[in-house]
Design a protein that fits this description.
This protein is α+β, with helices and mostly antiparallel strands. About 25% of the residues lie in helices and about 30% in strands.
Length: about 250
């Protein structure tokens, strides 16, 4: 059962969550697109237009349209050469409903596993489950913030910034090595120039070069349709971290 207005039930619910739904679907679509058309040929603008079409036209209609799998969708990809083998012609990529379903299936399965896990956990505590609320628009139910630790080395006098690639796995357990289930979610650009350098640890190597080592955290908070990334240093917030989903 889908509860569209769950606020009156909040006091009775035990909140638990995972990074599921819309965010993972966007990551899966990006991975599918990169493999299909070769990510070296994708420009930022083409990717943005394709993602916008995916978010506005495909995702909202997948579950509500009974004929979705029989329909053909034309995703805008301007600037790319025609490739009839993959259905790319005149700046549009032709996708069949069956292809799109394969993007949805792993994410839908993960959501199902999460629901079963939460129901079983409740029953194990002798808590009867009468209702499953799937919140579609309120970030406070999306799960706890996740703290990710980082460290970097920067020469004295240079801007203390670092770029990191954040990857995710659609399975319940991450593989020991990267495989086809692992996708790059986004690129994080962390700028620590707002942190006073007096808080950094200073070192000098054998050649006399002076440098800093910096340890910090990025706080990732899953939302209903997006992710929020925040820089934390010495327990203090220093603003949001820039996330780029298409390069």
């Amino acid at each position: 059962m889908l509860c569209l207005q769950p606020r009156r039930y909040l006091d009775r619910l035990t909140k638990a969550g995972d990074i599921c739904g819309s965010v993972l679907l966007d990551a899966a679509f990006k991975a599918f697109l990169n493999v299909l058309v070769n990510d070296k040929h994708l420009s930022g603008k083409s990717s943005e237009l394709a993602l916008k079409y995916w978010q506005d036209q495909i995702k909202p209609n997948f579950a509500s349209d009974p004929d979705f799998e029989e329909e053909t969708h034309f995703v805008p990809l301007p600037g790319l050469k025609d490739n009839p083998k993959i259905g790319l012609q005149d700046g549009f990529l032709q996708l069949e409903g069956a292809q799109i379903k394969k993007i949805f299936d792993p994410v839908v399965d993960r959501v199902k596993v999460q629901i079963v896990h939460q129901v079983n956990s409740a029953r194990a505590k002798n808590m009867p489950v009468k209702l499953v609320c799937c919140d579609a628009g309120d970030e406070i139910h999306e799960g706890k913030p996740i703290r990710m630790g980082f460290d970097m080395t920067v020469a004295v006098g240079r801007t203390p910034s670092v770029t990191s690639r954040l990857k995710i796995c659609l399975h319940s357990e991450a593989p020991e090595r990267s495989d086809s289930s692992v996708y790059q979610l986004c690129t994080l650009t962390t700028d620590l120039s707002s942190v006073p350098t007096q808080y950094f640890t200073k070192h000098r190597n054998s050649k006399g070069t002076v440098y800093y080592t910096v340890e910090f955290y990025i706080i990732m908070t899953p939302g209903s349709a997006s992710m929020k990334f925040e820089l934390e240093f010495n327990g203090q917030s220093y603003g949001e971290v820039q996330a780029t989903y298409f390069e």
